[in-house]
Amino acid sequence: MLISSAVAKYLRYCAVERQLSPHSVQAYAVDLNDFHRFLGADRSVDSIIGADLGAYLSDLLERRRLSVSTARRRFACLRTFFRRTAVLEPAADPFRGWRLELPRRKRLPRCLSHSEARDVLSGLTNSGRVTSVSSRPVSIAVRLMIATGIRVGELCNIRIADVAPEGTRVRIRGKGARDREVYISDPDLRSGLLQLLEARAKQPAKSPHVFVNRLKRPMRPQSVRLALRRYSELSSSRRRITPHMLRHTAATLLIERGVDIRFVQKLLGHSSISTTEIYTHVSDEALRASLEKADVLAHLAA
User: Fold this and answer.
1) 274 burial class (0-12, 13-18, 19+ CB within 10 angstroms)?
2) Who has the most CB within 10 Å: 93, 187, 223, 228?
3) Do 132 and 234 sit in the same domain of this protein?
4) DSSP for residue 94
5) pLDDT for the residue numbered 211
6) Torsion angle (degrees, nearest 10) of CA 72, 78, 84, 88
């Protein structure tokens, strides 16, 4: 079987049998098609060997200088793809007998400082800035991500029926078909979300999604990324802001405010608490504030 056919079958399997979200299926498609392009020809699956994997790894890290985490993600995708394909077709798995060796570096999640987060929130209501982040739907979307830590793909997948009538709860269709609920405690955000739903009710029902573009089609994650990039270019810090940084920021702020890590795990939709534990690192800002409050020398001098 040609690799193009195998990729198409695998993506259908992910969408239909595994019931992965469209965002996850698209991410797998990007990774698998990148490997396909690297091969340079539509080869048969059983012709691919460990040497091809090694050459692809070198291409990612040495020629394109992509990060180790990107290479690890792409090879995780390839491993599951070939494992599944070997079940369906009498093809050898090139990963059998081949070992992926990458340096393991535990990197702390990148999040916004308190001042940067405040700058983002104030910028959302600053009509003087000519940026799509100031548009009401995107403004509410960004606030919702900061308040709840939802992924950008989950945000774009929210349906009108997922929002509770009073705007206090939102059903989230998470990764791996794991649904959960997030809660909105901020009155202004609740009010803004309900106003957005009222405006959507007056529009032609082309889409059941809460967040739609100008064509009334579901907003795409890339649209949110581009809006944040434009905002970053206009902000005082000029630091590039991504949707996932907002998720990291939400988790870190909740931990710093004393929210139980098990609640944060449930809010973020992590299957394992070990994934959430990375947010228990103490940020420099929180550490400085705690030390200033403690002021050991002043206490001893008293």
Assistant:
1) exposed
2) 228
3) yes
4) T
5) 92
6) -170
Chain length of the chain: 302
Measured CA to CA, the distance from residue 125 to residue 138 in angstroms comes to 11
Q: Where are the alpha helices (DSSP H) in 65-113?
A: 68-88
Question: Same domain for 119 and 256?
Answer: yes
Q: What span, in angstroms and rounded, lies between the C-alpha atoms of 211 and 220? A: 9
Tokens of 184: 């909105």
d(CA 271, CA 281): 20
How far is it, in rounded angstroms, from Cα 262 to Cα 51?
Answer: 44
| Of 13-27, 51-65, 118-132, 135-149, the least confident | 118-132
| 83 and 120 co-located in one domain | no
3-state DSSP assignment of residue 121: helix
Using one digit for the tens of pLDDT, what is the confidence trace for 227-246? 888 877 776 667 788 999 99
pLDDT at 154: 93
Q: How many Å apart are CA 191 and CA 291, to the nearest integer? A: 38
| Containing structural domain, residue 25 | 3-88
Contacts of 30 by beta carbon, 8 Å cutoff, 6+ apart: none
Q: What is the DSSP letter of 107?
A: P
